[in-house]
Structures are given as C-alpha cells and as structure tokens.
Design a protein that fits this description.
Elements (H helix, E strand, L loop, with lengths): L2 E7 L3 H14 L5 E5 L5 H4 L6 E2 L6 H15 L1 H4 L13 E5 L1 H16 L4 E5 H7 L10 E5 L4 E2 L2 H15 L2 E4 L1 E9 L14 E9 L5 E11 L5 H6 L16 E11 L12 E3 L4 E5 L6 E5 L13 H15 L8 E12 L6 E4 L6 E5 L4 H4 L1 H13 L14 H4 L11
Parallel strand pairs: 1-2, 1-11, 2-8, 4-13, 11-18
Antiparallel strand pairs: 3-7, 4-6, 5-6, 9-10, 10-11, 12-15, 12-16, 13-14, 14-15, 17-18
Length: about 425
C-alpha cells in the first residue's frame, strides 16, 4: 500500500482498538493500516497481570474508562464476535490502606461515588472477618467495589480485537517503523517556528522481515507502539528539534517481575477479589488454579534496573508478603515471568491526543497496564478525534501532550 487514510503504529491493545473503532464507525469510508513488528505477540501472551479491571481511581477519566470497559466486556460477543470469550469474572477489587493513606482512600471513594461507582468502605475488622488469612493489624480501612470489577483474559481480548479488525477491512502489516518523511508547508504559521520553515510528517517508512523498505502516505498517524513509542517519536524529531519539538515523548519500557505463590494457608475461592496492598503489593488468584499471582507497583522514580534484582524482592516485596499474608516457606514464592510496560516517566499517566507540532500525529501511549484495561475507551476516543475532531463520549483532553509544555502533571493517586 502506498497510501492510507490512517496508519496506526503498534498493533497491541490500544492500536487494535483504534483500528476497530475507526472501521466500525466509518467502514469502507476510511482505509486503515496497522503496522506491528511482532504479530506473534509473544510478550503479551505472558503478561499475566494485565487481566484485571478496577474503578479505584482518583482521576474521573480513569473511572469513566473503567466503567466503559466493563460495559464493553459484558457485551464482548456483540461487540467483537460470538466466539470471543474473555472470561470476565466480576469478583471485585479490594484496596487496603494504613493510617497514612486512609484519608486519601476516603477522598478517592468520595470521588468515585460522585461518578457512579458502587463500592463499600470496610474497617479492619470487616476485612479480617471476610478474609481471615489477611493480616490487618496495620490496616485502617479498605474499599471493595461491588460491581464491574474483576479479572479477564487479556490475550483473548487482543485476539478478538485483531480478528474483528481483519473482518472490518483493516490491513495489518508485520513491519518495523524506521522513519518518517516530511513535507514543507510554507504557508503554515506557528509560534516559535520561523515563517516558511514548517515541516509536517506525511509518510511513515517501515522495514519488513526481508529487509525491504516501504513507505505509506497518510492523512493521520496514530502512535500506539507501547514502550517503543518514545523512540519512534524521535524519528519525527520529537525531542530532537527546537520549539515545540524540543520536549521528548517521555515513554520508556519498565520491567516488573511477577511471582507465583503456592500456599495452602491462603484460603480463597473463585470470588476472592484482586487485592492491592497499601505497600504497593498486589495479589490475585490465578484463574481457576490453586496458586496466586503477585507483584509490586513501584514509584515512577524507582530505578528501572533495581526492579528486577534479588535485592528488590528481598527488601521490598518479601517483607510486604510476610507482613500481609505470612506465607510459611520461601520456596512457596517463585518468579514466574518478567513483564514489560510503557511507562510515562513524567507523571505515570498516559499521553493521548495530537502532538502540538505534528497535528496529524495522535499519540496514544504511556498507559502501562491501563493500556489493556482501558483499551476500548481509549480506542474510541482516538477514533472520535480523527472522525469528529473532538472527544464526544469521554472527555480525555487532560491526557494531552500539552500538559508537558506547561509542566502540569496529571497524577493518579490510586495504585493499581
């Protein structure tokens, strides 16, 4: 293909959701191409922790996106295909808070109730009664959602989105993006740009497995390449230029270890909720199996290399496990897999919307695990920007790149 109305760089959860929504709304009226360098999705298939859905957020945008995801998941077969089964199990999501974070939890719950979230505040005694295997001596409060929260199969979701994209006429190409071509637009006047010097991207250059290079001209390009988005942005001079191109796209890969816990003393049923501890430790049952999965949500300023070390497990994760669940033997906890997410190192919140210089480049990256959880709503939002020129369902304007220009971080105060 030499031309497409929209080129999407990245065929993961967000990229395929964008393709799905563009073709669902516009049909044959829009030609859409997805460029994805790994169509085996080997990394995503092993990302066990992606498949959980919660509404425990402080930002209204995240609450609305979770609510829409729950609706999309409940009607997954009507939305995608009658054979798609993501095994969505609404078993809830329990957030724990010690004295230090109890007030923030209460504030978050108040915000959530304003936006229609159904949840319940629990005392330490309430939590102990429901889940006697949890140590609650240092817990002040907990909050559990009473609907639309739980676990699902993320790999089944991605396969369903990808199949539907094919069915609707989206072209998917196995390719690695290696550059952009730009065209001079002398009649464009932009603050900070010398008159007559504006150059806008209009083609994406990619390489196939046989090392052949090709280019596609586009009207709009969506950058949804996950943890590689920051590097691809540099190919469009974002972070390498002057003025509006001086600020880089601050998205980098961040790796986390996921652990398996085999402990018969943790008595849990299929209805046991996902649990987010006040320390950043999370725990969830591994589907219908008898073991549990756990990991740790680090701070955005944690050293990336530190997260995979034995010292990080020994000093951060293991003490939290011992305190909260008191497992008996060290060999009951085993490293299962290392997962990789796209991290926005500026404020740890996703970046969504047109770039201020390249207005035909829409960024949709840096959402971390929420890129999977919120893919239905994010993809719908990008399609609205392209087709309608504005958000018409959920206003996601605050996720835009402009907050980097004015240095106004958008911080989500709840861990997930």
């Amino acid at each position: 293909m030499e031309h497409a109305d929209v080129v999407i760089i990245g065929g993961g959860f967000i990229g395929t959701s964008v393709g799905y929504w563009l073709k669902t709304r516009a049909g044959a009226g829009l030609s859409v191409v997805i460029l994805e360098k790994d169509l085996t999705y080997s990394g995503i298939q092993k990302n066990f922790s992606l498949g959980s859905l919660t509404q425990h957020f402080s930002l209204p945008e995240n609450i609305y996106l979770s609510q829409y995801s729950a609706e999309f998941f409940r009607n997954i077969q009507a939305n995608l295909n009658k054979d798609v089964d993501i095994k969505f199990t609404p078993n809830g999501y329990l957030v724990l808070a010690c004295d230090k974070y109890a007030e923030q939890l209460e504030q978050n719950v108040a915000v959530q109730k304003e936006y229609g979230v159904k949840n319940e505040l629990l005392t330490s005694a309430d939590i102990k009664k429901r889940y006697p295997w949890i140590n609650t001596t240092d817990i002040k409060l907990g909050c559990i959602g009473t609907e639309s929260e739980g676990v699902f199969n993320p790999w089944a979701l991605l396969k369903g989105l990808l199949f539907k994209c094919h069915e609707l006429g989206t072209t998917v190409i196995k390719a690695e993006v290696i550059g952009f071509e730009m065209e001079q637009q002398r009649d464009v006047l932009m603050e900070g740009v010398p008159p007559g010097s504006f150059r806008r991207i209009n083609k994406v250059v990619y390489k196939t497995d046989d090392n052949e290079e090709h280019s596609i001209k586009f009207a709009a390009c969506v950058l949804a390449a996950g943890d590689n988005s920051g590097e691809i942005a540099k190919l469009a001079q974002i972070g390498n230029g002057h003025g509006l191109l001086k600020i880089p796209l601050p998205i980098e890969p961040r790796e986390f270890n996921i652990y398996s816990i085999d402990d018969e003393n943790i008595k849990a049923s299929i209805n046991t909720p996902c649990i987010m501890d006040t320390s950043g430790l999370w725990l969830r049952r591994n589907g219908l199996k008898n073991n549990f999965l756990c990991g740790h949500t680090p701070l955005v300023n944690n050293d990336v290399k530190e997260l995979l070390t034995d010292e990080y497990f020994t000093n951060i994760i293991q003490p939290s496990l011992l305190n909260r669940y008191n497992y008996r033997k060290e060999d009951q906890v085993k490293r299962l897999h290392t997962e990789v997410y796209d991290c926005n190192t500026y404020d740890d919140t996703g970046i969504l919307g047109s770039h201020p210089y390249h207005s035909n480049l829409i960024i949709a990256a840096g959402f971390g695990k929420l890129g999977c959880h919120h893919a239905p709503g994010i993809g719908r939002g990008v399609a609205e920007l392209i087709i309608d020129g504005r958000y018409s369902s959920i206003d996601l304007t605050r996720f835009g790149f402009d907050r980097l220009l004015v240095n106004e971080p958008l911080v989500e105060f709840n861990m997930y």
